[in-house]
Specification:
With 485 residues, the protein is α/β, with parallel strands linked by helices. The protein has 18 helices and 24 strands. It folds into two domains: 230 residues, Nucleotidyltransferase, domain 5 (2-Layer Sandwich), CATH 3.30.420.40; 208 residues, Nucleotidyltransferase, domain 5. Strands 1, 2, 3, 5, 13, 14 and 15 form a seven-stranded mixed β-sheet that branches. The N and C termini lie far apart (59 Å).
Length: 485
C-alpha cells in the first residue's frame, strides 16, 4: 500500500492506494489561514502536522489491514512557503504562504539583480520564497538571525516523518534559489538572496527516497519503520503526475482557488519575461511550464458571497448554453496577478456595468473574465514554444458545465473532463511513492485518467469571444493607469 498526502491551503487530503492504484480510502482534514495584515497570508506548521496525523488515524481505523501493509509515502504541497527552522529544527514563525504579497518590493529588487532570471528561469514573484527571507531579514532581524534551514510546506511534513531535511526539484524551483536548468542550488542565487547553501535542504528527485519513518512515528501509526518517504512534488507537479501530464503536448487547466494552465516540457525552455513559470517536474529529466492567475474560483466565490447565493444556484440561473459574450468585462485581479502581468498591486474591476445588469450578467462576467485571464496564460505559454492541442480540466470549477463550455470556446481548445475518481495531487504523490519503492518506470505508473467526455469549442461563437477577449486585453493598461493616476 502507498499513501499520498496533498497539503493544500484550505486542507490536507490523504489517499491510500494499492500498487495497482486502486483507491482503498481517503481522508480530508481542514486547515485555516491567518491574514494578520492586508496582503499577508500565514499558517502555523503545527496545524499541518495535526491534520496529517488525523488523516493517518482515520485511514488506519477505516482500513486496518491495508494500512498495516503501507510501504511508501509521497507528499505534495502548496509551493513557495517560507517555513523557517532554527538549529534544533523548531519553527521560528508562522509559514509565509504562496499568496502573501508583503515582499513585493524585495521581489522587484531581487528580480533586477544580475543573473537571477537567467539562472532561476523565472521572474521573482512576490509569492516566491527568496524575497520573503529578505523581508524577514529587514523586518524581523531576530528571527532571520536564527534561521538554520528554510523548507517548503510539504518538506516540513517529510522532516516530521523522517527527521531528514530534504526537498526535491519541483518545489525547490519555486524558491528563486535553484538553478532550474541544472537542478541544483545556485551559489549566485543564494548570494543574491542573502542566504547560504547550508541553510538549504538536501535535494533529491521527486520519485527518489528521501528517508524512512522515524520509530516514534511508525509506532504511532502502527506501520513498519521501513516505510519509505519519497521526495514528492510541488502541488502542480504532483497534479501533473496524477493526470499523466508528463511529456511535451500534455497539459491541464485547473479551476481551483487560483487558476493554472500547465504544459509539460521535454526540455528546459525558460522565458521569464512572459511571466510563465518554468519549473522542474517531479521526475528526472523533465520540466513543466505554467501560467498562474491568483483568483479563479476565488473570484466566483467572492461574487456569490455578495449576492448571497450558493454554487448550487448557478445551474438554474445560467442554463445549459453560454450564449454570446456579455457586455460587462471583469478583470479577476482581486489578489493581484501573476501571468502575464507580474503585478501584485493591481486590483480587479468590472467595466461596462449598466442599470439593467442582474446576477446572471455579473456571474457570466466573472466566469468569462477568469476564462480570458487563462487565455492570457495560453498566449504566454505559446510564446515559450509550448504546444497544447487540448487540455484536461480539473478543480472545483470544472464541475460547472457552463464554465467549461465557456473556457473551451475562449481557449478555442477541446477540454477533456475526467471520469469520476482519484486523479489529483494526492494520487500523484502516491504514484511518486510507487516509483520510489518499486523502481517502476514513471511512464507506466503515471497514466492518463479515463475521459468521461470532451467539451468542444462552440465554433459559431469562437469569433465573438475572440473579439471580446481582445477588448479584455486592452483593459489592463487602462485600469493600471487609472489606479496609478
Amino acid at each position: 500500500m502507498f499513501l499520498g498526502l496533498d497539503l493544500g491551503t484550505s486542507g490536507l487530503r490523504a489517499v491510500l492506494v494499492s500498487e495497482d492504484q486502486d483507491v482503498i480510502g481517503a481522508s480530508e482534514q481542514p486547515l485555516e489561514t491567518a491574514h494578520p495584515k492586508a496582503g499577508w497570508s500565514e499558517q502555523d506548521p503545527d496545524t499541518w502536522l495535526r491534520a496529517m496525523h488525523a488523516a493517518a488515524a482515520e485511514l488506519k481505523d477505516a482500513h486496518p489491514k491495508s494500512w498495516a501493509a503501507l510501504r511508501g509515502i509521497g507528499i505534495s504541497g502548496h509551493m513557495h512557503g517560507a517555513t523557517m527552522l532554527d538549529a534544533d529544527g523548531a519553527v521560528l514563525r508562522p509559514c509565509i504562504l504562496w499568496n502573501d504579497t508583503r515582499a513585493h518590493a524585495e521581489a522587484a529588487d531581487l528580480d533586477a539583480a544580475a543573473q537571477v532570471r537567467a539562472l532561476s528561469g523565472n521572474i521573482v514573484f512576490p509569492g516566491f520564497t527568496a524575497p520573503k527571507l529578505i523581508w524577514t531579514a529587514t523586518h524581523e532581524p531576530d528571527v532571520f538571525a536564527r534561521v538554520a534551514k528554510v523548507v517548503q510546506p510539504k518538506d516540513y511534513l517529510t522532516y516530521a516523518l523522517t527527521g531528514r531535511i530534504v526537498s526535491e526539484m519541483s518545489d525547490a524551483a519555486g524558491t528563486s534559489w535553484l538553478d532550474t536548468g541544472a537542478r541544483d542550488w545556485s551559489d549566485r542565487l543564494l548570494e543574491a538572496g542573502g542566504m547560504r547553501r547550508d541553510q538549504m535542504p538536501d535535494l533529491v528527485e521527486g520519485s527518489a527516497p528521501a528517508g524512512t519513518l522515524q520509530g516514534d512515528i511508525a509506532a504511532r501509526w502502527g506501520v513498519s519503520d521501513a516505510v519509505v518517504v519519497v521526495g514528492g512534488g510541488g502541488d502542480n507537479a504532483a497534479a501533473a503526475c496524477g493526470v499523466g501530464a508528463m511529456r511535451e503536448g500534455d497539459g491541464f487547466v485547473s479551476l481551483g482557488t487560483s487558476g493554472v494552465l500547465l504544459a509539460a516540457r521535454d526540455s528546459y525552455a525558460p522565458k521569464p519575461e512572459s511571466a510563465v513559470h518554468t519549473f522542474c517536474h517531479a521526475i528526472p529529466g523533465t520540466w513543466y511550464q505554467m501560467g498562474v492567475i491568483l483568483a479563479a474560483t476565488d473570484s466566483l466565490n467572492w461574487l456569490l458571497r455578495l449576492l448571497n447565493m450558493q454554487p448550487s444556484d448557478l445551474a438554474g440561473l445560467l442554463g445549459d448554453h453560454i450564449g454570446d459574450p456579455g457586455r460587462i468585462r471583469f478583470l479577476p485581479y482581486l489578489s493581484g496577478e501573476r501571468t502575464p502581468h507580474n503585478d501584485s498591486t493591481i486590483r480587479g474591476a468590472m467595466v461596462g456595468l449598466e442599470i439593467g445588469a442582474g446576477p446572471k450578467d455579473l456571474i457570466h462576467a466573472v466566469m468569462e473574465g477568469v476564462g480570458f485571464a487563462l487565455r492570457d496564460n495560453l498566449e504566454a505559454l505559446r510564446s515559450t514554444g509550448a504546444s497544447l492541442d487540448r487540455v484536461l480540466a480539473i478543480g472545483g470549477g470544472a464541475r460547472s458545465d457552463y464554465w467549461v463550455q465557456l473556457l473551451a470556446t475562449i481557449l478555442n481548445l477541446p477540454v477533456d473532463l475526467p471520469a469520476k475518481g482519484e486523479f489529483g495531487a494526492a494520487l500523484g504523490a502516491a504514484r511518486l511513492a510507487i516509483c520510489g519503492v518499486t523502481d517502476a518506470d514513471p511512464a507506466d505508473v503515471m497514466t492518463k485518467p479515463e475521459i468521461a467526455r470532451t467539451v468542444e469549442p462552440i465554433a459559431a461563437q469562437v469569433e465573438a469571444y475572440e473579439s471580446a477577449y481582445q477588448h479584455y486585453r486592452r483593459l489592463y493598461p487602462a485600469i493600471k493607469g487609472a489606479a496609478e493616476g
